[in-house]
């Protein structure tokens, strides 16, 4: 990981740029190795990534911060962090694990070729947090270590790249299947789950334009009550609260990561007045936008 620019409020953008002459678009290393080669003060910086990061905790306990929320991790915790998310490793020392970094370019691009589309993997299907049992963790570690071994195979860069790509796809597809099985065991109705996934994708796409449950229900061809039931079953909060949480998360990102005025942020998030945005933010966060920004200077 290489720092490319320091942003205000102690959030820095990171792009994928391994030490040359490393030629691949995926990099794998242990957390302990990262700590050894990185100054302690750099490990405590909050970053906004321009690449995917997978973290597999193999021993110990820690708290990771993702999009300003603490996530308690222990042996077997698997985290998936996407480009644009904000992450901090926290201050815990007595833990270790594997980290996999890869650029978006490493993924098979969406094309009009049917066979290629069948090979593409939608990382939106991968859960952001997954807790692995002992056997699942062992298999995960074996998959990661196999990728590391294959990095050393003598061959063309193109062939090794292809091998690593499909190994990663196999690994994350298996994790996605695990997630589905766990969700099924939690007796979440499949139709309800699929409706929530569709809702989640729409919110991610339109949260800055649409803020009413009715607008999403119309696009999903269901009633507001049906959509709220699906959201409650999936994440334990109402559809309205889910939309508000996504808007609030983006507000936090803009307040900490940019120099936009509060009025500009209100406009970007489709609030008619800055005062309406401030009331919304205080209701969701417990402080005004100005207070939140001041706290994170």
From TrEMBL:
* InterPro entries, A to Z: AraC-bd, Homeodomain-like_sf, HTH-like, HTH_AraC, Tscrpt_reg_AraC-type_HTH
Q: Which domain of life is it from?
A: Bacteria
What Gene Ontology molecular function terms does this protein carry? DNA-binding transcription factor activity; sequence-specific DNA binding
Residue span(s) of domain HTH araC/xylS-type: 197-295
- UniProt keywords, alphabetically: DNA-binding, Transcription, Transcription regulation
**PROSITE patterns per the record?**
HTH_ARAC_FAMILY_2
Q: What is the official name of this protein in its record?
A: Transcriptional regulator
Annotated gene? rhaS9
